[in-house]
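Give me the fold.
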Amino acid sequence: MSSIPPAVQRSGATASRLREEIISGLAEPGNLLAESAVATRLGVSRVPVREALFTLEREGLVEFGPTGRAFVKQLTLTDFEELFVLRLTLEPMASRLAATNIRKNCSALQANLKATHRVNTIESVTRLDLEFHEIIIAAAGNERLLKLWCSIRGELELWLGRLHRKHQLRTQETLQETVVSHQELIDTFQTQSDSTCERVMRAHILSWRSWLPITTDDEDRL
């Protein structure tokens, strides 16, 4: 029997449902998340909805307007650029720090890649892609680095999900490109030096540059 109070369970379940809708794009950027409407749709009271919205605000997925109403976070061109720069700063360094540990045991990355092979939705690709990179961050063994990553994880998933959907509309090859690039990273960790792992991860993150929106028209299509 669960020791988690029912009210906390309802709040957590509500946050999970809304998080999934936001990350998948079902709840579009700028959409109003009215407490009463969300509560009616999900079959809960307004209290867990309110708590869920505060949780999602802390994760960077929801923002509150001046009147206190909640909206799905609209990433701006600046947001996309800032999150890109953070990834470019954190992940190559983490790769260098994690290289020895992953070289000894890369089973977690291999399991993630195997799972990625099997999925059939862009939302699942996004989730597993981010988990792949989080495994590397965690393997670095630096608690503060991991905490920093976790503090922006929600926004990164929102960022990555929108870029994946945009790329899928253009190429239909998001899954295959993700699998190929992650296999390259695994091969590098298994066979190359720490500094090479850092360099290859930097190149991997830099490859996202062409995926970033560069005009407000691009931003509106995400």
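Strands lie at 62-64, 70-72.
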